[in-house]
Amino acid sequence: MFEKQHLTLGEFIIANQDSFQYSSGELSRLLNGIRLAAKVVNHEVNKAGLVDIIGTAGEMNIQGENQQKLDVLANEKFIQTLKNREIVCGIASEEEDDFISINSFDENHQNKYIVLIDPLDGSSNIDVNVSVGTIFSIYRRVTPVGTPVTLKDFLQPGKNQIAAGYIIYGTSTMLVYTTGNGVNGFTLNPALGTFYLSHPDMKYPETGKIYSVNEGNYIHFPQGVKDYIKYCQMEEGDRPYTSRYIGSLVSDFHRNMIKGGIYMYPKSSVAQNGKLRLLYECNPMAFLAEQAGGKASNGFRPIMEIEPTELHERVPFFCGSKKMVEKVEEFIQA
Ligand code: AHG
Ligand code: MN
Ligand code: MN
Q: What's the 334 CA to ligand 3 centre distance in angstroms?
């Protein structure tokens, strides 16, 4: 067995593949594909500040290459890497109108996995050197192997996920994921290009003192959410809580999981279902949250129980320390 603190992501994937209930070698190859794409995107994200020197989106850079917007580029890199692994039969991305079917017209094709991604989360933060991320969610297809994938393969409830995770391109770059046996975090050593297990068995504190919400939308929030925000600000017991909102779900979630807190993107009078996407953002984060002892809800029921009806569906999202999510549900349902 490897010493835990010296484990690389590659070693960890292999060491843990037997605990996975399905064909484990395939999932390992898929996770390795994500690991590779993460490094490529990390490299691009880190160059973002050089855009005036090497060219802006839509322009030629100094080498005569076309510069692309980072969310488009991240999307391409992930799709390319996953396509080439002969594991995935379908990909859906926040950046694409439709799902992509991969070689599934070939009846010899044995690919079983569906991947959904938000290739660049928090993209408005790129220009100002604030952390962004990538979110991924993995399912097994429900239609027979060797036939074309259909929408049905993508519209599965979050509870069917077999793996999910995110990459955070922050002060250091981390990959955090679950295959249903807890949550583990790996930090990239940029000098070596290797991810090391730095955060084994991550757990949400049962309660916390951070609330994260775009309070500029306060006036549009439902009364229950307004009341909960006032509750967070009240001087009583361990309150008032502190307010922290980066505007990158990945970063806000990551901080709250480590320190204890709640992230909220409620519905509002201007956005009936809030902003976040059920399939690319909420389900994977909900799987991670539950695996870390936290909770994720739309205010009324667990996120992962929702039966999706469309690819880009949005949903109100409350996610974080268990007790805090239960409390906001109380206010919303009052
Ligand atoms: P994306 O960059 O993938 O479109 O996602 C941005 C999301 C999420 O990361 C963030 O928490 C939220 O949008 C911020 O929205 P507001 O600016 O409306 O607060
Ligand atoms: Mn996003
Ligand atoms: Mn995005």
A: 33
